[in-house]
Amino acid sequence: MSVEVYVPSVETDALLLQWWARMNDAGELETIFPSFATPSAFLAAMQVPTAVLFDHDTDGITVAVWCTALLHSAALSLWVRKDYRHRRWVHVVIDALRTLFTAGVRLIVFVSELPHVIRAAQDVHFEILGQIPSLVSSAQNATIGFLTVQQFEVHYGTTGSSSAGPSGRG
Question: pTM of the prediction?
Answer without folding.
Answer: 0.78
